[in-house]
Amino acid sequence: MLEVEDLSVGFRVDSGWIRTVDDVSFTLGAKSSLGIVGESGSGKSVTALSILRLHAQRNTRMTGAIRFDGKDLLRLPERQLRQLRGRDIAMIFQDPMHSLNPVLTVGEQIGETLRIHRGLDARTAHSEAAELLDMVRIPDARSRVDDYPHQLSGGMRQRVMIAMAIACRPRLLIADEPTTALDVTVQAQILDLLRELREEIGMSVILISHDMGLVAEFVERVLVMYAGKLVEDAPARTIFEHPAHPYSEGLLRAIPSPDEDMHRLYAIPGRIPDPGREPPGCSFAPRCGLAQPACTTAAPSLKVFGPGHLIRCPVRLAAKEASP
Fold this sequence. Notes:
12 strands, single chain, Rossmann fold
Protein backbone atom coordinates (compact mmCIF):
# COMPACT_ATOMS: atom_id res chain seq x y z
CA MET A 1 0.00 0.00 0.00
CA LEU A 2 2.81 2.41 0.91
CA GLU A 3 6.27 2.32 -0.62
CA VAL A 4 8.96 4.82 0.36
CA GLU A 5 11.98 4.62 -1.93
CA ASP A 6 15.28 6.47 -1.43
CA LEU A 7 13.60 9.37 0.37
CA SER A 8 15.96 12.25 1.16
CA VAL A 9 14.82 15.50 2.76
CA GLY A 10 16.83 18.70 3.03
CA PHE A 11 16.05 22.10 4.52
CA ARG A 12 17.43 25.49 3.57
CA VAL A 13 19.28 27.34 6.31
CA ASP A 14 21.47 30.46 6.33
CA SER A 15 24.55 28.45 5.38
CA GLY A 16 22.82 26.55 2.55
CA TRP A 17 21.01 23.21 2.49
CA ILE A 18 21.23 20.53 5.18
CA ARG A 19 19.97 16.97 4.74
CA THR A 20 17.98 15.58 7.67
CA VAL A 21 16.71 12.36 6.06
CA ASP A 22 19.06 10.37 3.84
CA ASP A 23 17.95 7.65 1.38
CA VAL A 24 15.26 6.08 3.56
CA SER A 25 13.33 3.16 2.02
CA PHE A 26 10.59 0.94 3.45
CA THR A 27 7.22 -0.58 2.58
CA LEU A 28 3.96 -1.03 4.47
CA GLY A 29 1.20 -3.42 3.52
CA ALA A 30 -2.55 -3.09 4.08
CA LYS A 31 -3.75 -3.61 7.67
CA SER A 32 -0.15 -3.69 8.91
CA SER A 33 1.72 -1.81 11.63
CA LEU A 34 5.18 -0.28 11.51
CA GLY A 35 7.21 1.44 14.22
CA ILE A 36 9.89 4.08 13.64
CA VAL A 37 12.16 4.62 16.63
CA GLY A 38 15.23 6.64 17.53
CA GLU A 39 16.40 9.58 19.61
CA SER A 40 15.13 13.11 19.08
CA GLY A 41 16.74 14.46 15.93
CA SER A 42 17.02 11.08 14.21
CA GLY A 43 14.61 12.03 11.41
CA LYS A 44 11.46 10.18 12.50
CA SER A 45 9.01 13.09 12.35
CA VAL A 46 10.60 14.57 9.22
CA THR A 47 10.03 11.23 7.47
CA ALA A 48 6.41 11.12 8.65
CA LEU A 49 5.62 14.68 7.61
CA SER A 50 7.20 14.01 4.22
CA ILE A 51 4.63 11.31 3.45
CA LEU A 52 1.91 13.98 3.38
CA ARG A 53 4.24 16.74 2.13
CA LEU A 54 3.57 18.90 5.18
CA HIS A 55 6.92 20.71 5.10
CA ALA A 56 7.07 24.31 3.88
CA GLN A 57 7.74 23.86 0.16
CA ARG A 58 9.88 26.96 -0.31
CA ASN A 59 12.43 25.78 2.26
CA THR A 60 12.33 22.04 1.63
CA ARG A 61 13.91 19.79 -0.97
CA MET A 62 12.66 16.18 -1.23
CA THR A 63 13.92 13.50 -3.58
CA GLY A 64 13.06 9.85 -4.07
CA ALA A 65 9.53 8.50 -4.23
CA ILE A 66 6.60 7.95 -1.83
CA ARG A 67 4.02 5.73 -3.52
CA PHE A 68 0.54 5.23 -2.07
CA ASP A 69 -1.51 2.78 -4.13
CA GLY A 70 1.01 3.31 -6.90
CA LYS A 71 0.69 7.12 -6.93
CA ASP A 72 3.85 9.07 -6.18
CA LEU A 73 2.81 11.57 -3.50
CA LEU A 74 5.92 13.70 -4.07
CA ARG A 75 4.75 14.41 -7.61
CA LEU A 76 1.00 14.52 -7.02
CA PRO A 77 -0.64 17.92 -7.72
CA GLU A 78 -1.43 19.82 -4.51
CA ARG A 79 -5.18 19.69 -5.15
CA GLN A 80 -5.19 15.91 -5.40
CA LEU A 81 -2.97 15.65 -2.33
CA ARG A 82 -5.41 17.76 -0.28
CA GLN A 83 -8.18 15.33 -1.18
CA LEU A 84 -6.05 12.45 0.03
CA ARG A 85 -4.96 14.05 3.32
CA GLY A 86 -7.38 13.22 6.11
CA ARG A 87 -9.45 10.93 3.90
CA ASP A 88 -7.05 8.14 2.93
CA ILE A 89 -4.02 9.08 5.04
CA ALA A 90 -4.43 10.77 8.43
CA MET A 91 -1.96 11.90 11.04
CA ILE A 92 -1.95 12.33 14.81
CA PHE A 93 0.52 15.07 15.70
CA GLN A 94 2.79 15.20 18.75
CA ASP A 95 1.25 18.00 20.77
CA PRO A 96 -2.57 18.21 20.66
CA MET A 97 -2.65 21.53 22.54
CA HIS A 98 -0.71 23.18 19.73
CA SER A 99 -2.37 21.19 16.94
CA LEU A 100 -5.95 22.00 17.97
CA ASN A 101 -7.42 25.43 17.27
CA PRO A 102 -8.07 27.12 20.65
CA VAL A 103 -10.96 29.28 19.36
CA LEU A 104 -13.03 26.44 17.87
CA THR A 105 -14.86 23.72 19.76
CA VAL A 106 -13.60 20.18 19.31
CA GLY A 107 -16.87 19.33 17.57
CA GLU A 108 -16.31 22.07 14.99
CA GLN A 109 -12.78 20.85 14.33
CA ILE A 110 -13.81 17.22 13.88
CA GLY A 111 -16.81 18.32 11.82
CA GLU A 112 -14.60 20.28 9.41
CA THR A 113 -12.98 17.04 8.26
CA LEU A 114 -16.39 15.42 7.81
CA ARG A 115 -17.76 18.37 5.82
CA ILE A 116 -14.73 18.62 3.51
CA HIS A 117 -14.15 14.96 2.77
CA ARG A 118 -17.59 13.42 3.21
CA GLY A 119 -19.81 16.33 2.26
CA LEU A 120 -21.90 16.28 5.45
CA ASP A 121 -23.97 19.30 6.46
CA ALA A 122 -23.13 21.11 9.70
CA ARG A 123 -25.82 19.41 11.83
CA THR A 124 -24.96 15.89 10.66
CA ALA A 125 -21.24 16.57 11.05
CA HIS A 126 -21.82 17.78 14.63
CA SER A 127 -23.79 14.65 15.47
CA GLU A 128 -21.16 12.37 13.96
CA ALA A 129 -18.41 14.27 15.78
CA ALA A 130 -20.10 13.34 19.04
CA GLU A 131 -20.25 9.71 17.94
CA LEU A 132 -16.53 9.81 17.16
CA LEU A 133 -15.76 11.23 20.60
CA ASP A 134 -17.76 8.38 22.09
CA MET A 135 -15.80 5.92 19.91
CA VAL A 136 -12.52 7.19 21.36
CA ARG A 137 -13.91 6.71 24.89
CA ILE A 138 -14.49 10.32 25.93
CA PRO A 139 -17.11 10.26 28.72
CA ASP A 140 -20.35 12.15 28.14
CA ALA A 141 -19.36 12.79 24.52
CA ARG A 142 -22.61 14.58 23.64
CA SER A 143 -21.82 17.42 26.01
CA ARG A 144 -18.03 17.46 25.54
CA VAL A 145 -18.37 17.92 21.77
CA ASP A 146 -19.02 21.63 22.39
CA ASP A 147 -16.02 22.07 24.68
CA TYR A 148 -12.92 24.01 23.68
CA PRO A 149 -9.49 22.34 23.81
CA HIS A 150 -8.44 24.14 27.02
CA GLN A 151 -11.43 22.60 28.82
CA LEU A 152 -10.13 19.08 28.24
CA SER A 153 -7.33 17.15 29.91
CA GLY A 154 -4.21 16.14 28.00
CA GLY A 155 -5.50 12.61 27.53
CA MET A 156 -8.84 13.86 26.24
CA ARG A 157 -7.17 16.25 23.80
CA GLN A 158 -5.13 13.36 22.45
CA ARG A 159 -8.34 11.36 22.01
CA VAL A 160 -9.85 14.31 20.11
CA MET A 161 -6.85 14.21 17.76
CA ILE A 162 -7.46 10.49 17.22
CA ALA A 163 -11.16 11.16 16.56
CA MET A 164 -10.22 13.75 13.92
CA ALA A 165 -7.74 11.33 12.35
CA ILE A 166 -10.20 8.42 12.05
CA ALA A 167 -13.22 10.53 11.07
CA CYS A 168 -13.01 9.43 7.42
CA ARG A 169 -11.89 5.86 8.16
CA PRO A 170 -8.41 6.34 6.66
CA ARG A 171 -6.49 3.42 5.22
CA LEU A 172 -3.25 4.69 6.78
CA LEU A 173 -2.85 6.40 10.14
CA ILE A 174 0.48 8.05 11.06
CA ALA A 175 0.77 8.48 14.83
CA ASP A 176 3.69 10.77 15.70
CA GLU A 177 4.44 10.42 19.43
CA PRO A 178 0.72 9.97 20.23
CA THR A 179 1.35 9.52 23.97
CA THR A 180 3.92 12.26 24.60
CA ALA A 181 3.56 13.92 28.05
CA LEU A 182 0.80 11.51 29.09
CA ASP A 183 1.05 9.43 32.24
CA VAL A 184 1.58 5.68 31.97
CA THR A 185 -2.07 4.78 32.57
CA VAL A 186 -3.32 7.14 29.85
CA GLN A 187 -0.56 5.89 27.51
CA ALA A 188 -1.85 2.34 27.89
CA GLN A 189 -5.41 3.49 27.25
CA ILE A 190 -4.40 5.35 24.07
CA LEU A 191 -2.50 2.31 22.74
CA ASP A 192 -5.42 0.01 23.52
CA LEU A 193 -7.72 2.44 21.72
CA LEU A 194 -5.49 2.57 18.64
CA ARG A 195 -5.27 -1.22 18.62
CA GLU A 196 -9.07 -1.57 18.77
CA LEU A 197 -9.60 1.05 16.07
CA ARG A 198 -7.00 -0.60 13.83
CA GLU A 199 -8.93 -3.86 14.01
CA GLU A 200 -12.34 -2.20 13.69
CA ILE A 201 -11.49 0.07 10.74
CA GLY A 202 -8.87 -2.18 9.15
CA MET A 203 -6.30 0.58 8.74
CA SER A 204 -2.51 0.40 8.65
CA VAL A 205 -0.59 2.32 11.31
CA ILE A 206 2.85 3.93 11.43
CA LEU A 207 3.77 4.57 15.06
CA ILE A 208 6.65 7.00 15.61
CA SER A 209 8.25 7.11 19.03
CA HIS A 210 11.50 7.29 20.99
CA ASP A 211 9.90 4.91 23.51
CA MET A 212 11.00 1.40 22.56
CA GLY A 213 8.74 -0.21 25.16
CA LEU A 214 5.70 1.52 23.69
CA VAL A 215 6.52 0.34 20.19
CA ALA A 216 7.13 -3.23 21.35
CA GLU A 217 3.50 -3.53 22.44
CA PHE A 218 1.99 -2.33 19.19
CA VAL A 219 3.82 -2.96 15.90
CA GLU A 220 4.79 -5.89 13.70
CA ARG A 221 7.90 -4.34 12.20
CA VAL A 222 10.41 -1.75 13.42
CA LEU A 223 12.67 0.75 11.67
CA VAL A 224 15.51 2.17 13.76
CA MET A 225 16.71 5.61 12.60
CA TYR A 226 19.87 7.46 13.50
CA ALA A 227 21.07 10.80 12.10
CA GLY A 228 18.53 10.66 9.27
CA LYS A 229 19.40 7.12 8.16
CA LEU A 230 17.87 3.71 8.68
CA VAL A 231 20.35 1.65 10.69
CA GLU A 232 18.15 -1.41 11.27
CA ASP A 233 14.95 -2.79 9.72
CA ALA A 234 13.48 -6.00 11.11
CA PRO A 235 10.39 -7.70 12.53
CA ALA A 236 9.55 -6.36 15.98
CA ARG A 237 10.34 -9.63 17.76
CA THR A 238 13.78 -9.73 16.12
CA ILE A 239 14.57 -6.14 17.14
CA PHE A 240 13.57 -6.64 20.75
CA GLU A 241 15.00 -10.14 21.24
CA HIS A 242 18.04 -10.10 18.95
CA PRO A 243 18.99 -6.53 17.95
CA ALA A 244 21.96 -6.48 15.58
CA HIS A 245 22.97 -2.83 15.34
CA PRO A 246 24.88 -1.36 18.33
CA TYR A 247 22.54 1.64 18.35
CA SER A 248 19.46 -0.59 18.62
CA GLU A 249 21.15 -2.41 21.49
CA GLY A 250 21.81 0.91 23.21
CA LEU A 251 18.19 2.01 22.89
CA LEU A 252 17.01 -1.26 24.43
CA ARG A 253 19.54 -1.05 27.27
CA ALA A 254 18.19 2.41 28.11
CA ILE A 255 14.75 0.97 28.94
CA PRO A 256 14.43 0.76 32.74
CA SER A 257 13.77 -2.76 34.01
CA PRO A 258 11.66 -3.32 37.16
CA ASP A 259 13.46 -6.63 37.68
CA GLU A 260 16.93 -5.11 37.99
CA ASP A 261 18.42 -3.18 40.89
CA MET A 262 19.70 -0.19 38.94
CA HIS A 263 21.55 2.61 40.72
CA ARG A 264 21.96 4.56 37.49
CA LEU A 265 20.04 4.32 34.23
CA TYR A 266 22.04 3.44 31.13
CA ALA A 267 22.56 6.14 28.53
CA ILE A 268 24.29 5.90 25.16
CA PRO A 269 27.46 8.02 25.50
CA GLY A 270 27.74 11.15 23.39
CA ARG A 271 24.97 12.80 21.39
CA ILE A 272 23.41 12.57 17.99
CA PRO A 273 25.30 14.77 15.46
CA ASP A 274 23.80 18.01 14.23
CA PRO A 275 22.36 17.82 10.70
CA GLY A 276 24.98 18.76 8.16
CA ARG A 277 27.81 18.06 10.63
CA GLU A 278 27.81 14.27 10.58
CA PRO A 279 31.24 12.70 11.00
CA PRO A 280 32.79 10.92 8.00
CA GLY A 281 32.00 7.25 7.66
CA CYS A 282 29.39 5.78 10.02
CA SER A 283 27.46 8.52 11.84
CA PHE A 284 27.23 6.36 14.96
CA ALA A 285 30.94 5.50 15.09
CA PRO A 286 31.91 8.22 17.65
CA ARG A 287 29.43 6.71 20.13
CA CYS A 288 29.93 3.03 19.27
CA GLY A 289 31.94 0.65 21.40
CA LEU A 290 32.49 -1.67 18.43
CA ALA A 291 33.81 0.98 16.02
CA GLN A 292 36.85 0.05 13.93
CA PRO A 293 39.15 2.47 12.04
CA ALA A 294 37.34 1.61 8.80
CA CYS A 295 34.04 2.80 10.34
CA THR A 296 35.29 6.39 10.31
CA THR A 297 36.23 6.47 6.63
CA ALA A 298 33.57 4.81 4.47
CA ALA A 299 29.82 5.30 4.99
CA PRO A 300 28.23 1.84 5.45
CA SER A 301 25.30 0.59 3.36
CA LEU A 302 22.12 -1.07 4.58
CA LYS A 303 22.64 -4.80 3.97
CA VAL A 304 20.90 -8.10 4.68
CA PHE A 305 21.77 -9.54 8.08
CA GLY A 306 19.13 -12.27 8.17
CA PRO A 307 15.66 -13.15 6.85
CA GLY A 308 13.73 -9.88 6.62
CA HIS A 309 16.48 -8.19 8.63
CA LEU A 310 18.63 -5.30 7.38
CA ILE A 311 21.37 -3.43 9.26
CA ARG A 312 23.90 -0.69 8.54
CA CYS A 313 26.92 -2.01 10.46
CA PRO A 314 29.95 -3.50 8.68
CA VAL A 315 31.41 -4.78 11.98
CA ARG A 316 28.38 -6.92 12.80
CA LEU A 317 28.00 -8.03 9.18
CA ALA A 318 31.64 -9.13 9.03
CA ALA A 319 31.31 -10.97 12.32
CA LYS A 320 28.27 -12.83 11.06
CA GLU A 321 30.02 -13.82 7.84
CA ALA A 322 33.01 -15.06 9.81
CA SER A 323 30.94 -17.12 12.24
CA PRO A 324 30.59 -20.86 11.42
